[in-house]
């Protein structure tokens, strides 16, 4: 049920209809989600971050040195990320942060508020689009639960600070929960293909800067 909201919003992003839940002042849907107003990066912050990244040059980063926020998922939610056959430490770091981004989004949906993890693993449009999803679930009174499988994962390093990655998502054992009544709604056999652009920030985190999605199709068979 609600996974269809996730896919439909993502497809809108693919079509260029960029979401604007945290695009400025004034009241809006995002204002109802706790933490949203303090976690959204401003355009000035993003510009300064890019300038800082350019100035840093080619310094090395170690994922083991990063102090990461803890992500707590509900007891009725499990996420299985298929391993990828690569020994490249940078590729594995990109994939690890890709998985953490997905977990951060679902944790925010479950909690009904934006915690530090979402801001930690996302930036720019990647943050804004995730916030729109969290807001949509919060307004409709649902959260996600069940088992979700992420497979056919891939990663491509574009340069030392930019990568693209993707995965297919199997929603067949996932379901939505009405927060007020506890009623469960199976999501069916829907599959989605998600693609990401990730950038390495000054802390050594491969943040999701933008993402898009489409129905799985042959790529997810």
From TrEMBL:
Region (Disordered) location: 24-75
Domain of life: Bacteria
Compositional bias of kind Basic and acidic residues: 65-75
Acidic residues composition bias: residue spans: 52-64
Signal peptide: 1-20
UniProt KW keywords: Signal
The keyword Signal is annotated on this UniProt entry: yes
Keyword Manganese: no
Name listed for the protein in its UniProt record: Lipoprotein
Organism of provenance: Streptomyces lonarensis
């Amino acid at each position: 049920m609600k996974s269809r909201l996730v896919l439909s919003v993502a497809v809108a992003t693919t079509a260029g209809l960029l979401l604007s839940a945290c695009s400025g002042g004034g009241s809006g849907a995002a204002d109802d989600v706790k933490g949203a107003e303090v976690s959204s990066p401003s355009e000035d912050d993003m510009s300064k971050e890019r300038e800082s990244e350019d100035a840093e040059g080619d310094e090395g980063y170690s994922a083991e040195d990063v102090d990461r926020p803890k992500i707590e998922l509900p007891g009725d939610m499990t996420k299985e990320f298929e391993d990828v056959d690569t020994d490249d430490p940078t590729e594995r770091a990109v994939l690890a942060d890709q998985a953490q981004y997905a977990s951060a989004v679902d944790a925010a949906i479950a909690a009904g508020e934006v915690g530090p993890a979402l801001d930690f693993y996302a930036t720019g449009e990647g943050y804004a689009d995730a916030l729109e999803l969290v807001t949509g679930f919060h307004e409709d009174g649902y959260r996600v639960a069940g088992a979700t499988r992420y497979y056919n994962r891939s990663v491509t390093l574009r340069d030392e600070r930019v990568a693209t990655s993707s995965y297919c998502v199997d929603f067949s054992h996932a379901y939505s929960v009405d927060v007020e009544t506890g009623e469960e709604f199976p999501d069916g056999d829907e599959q989605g293909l998600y693609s990401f652009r990730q950038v390495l920030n000054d802390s050594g985190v491969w943040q999701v800067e933008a993402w898009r999605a489409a129905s799985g199709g042959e790529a997810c068979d």
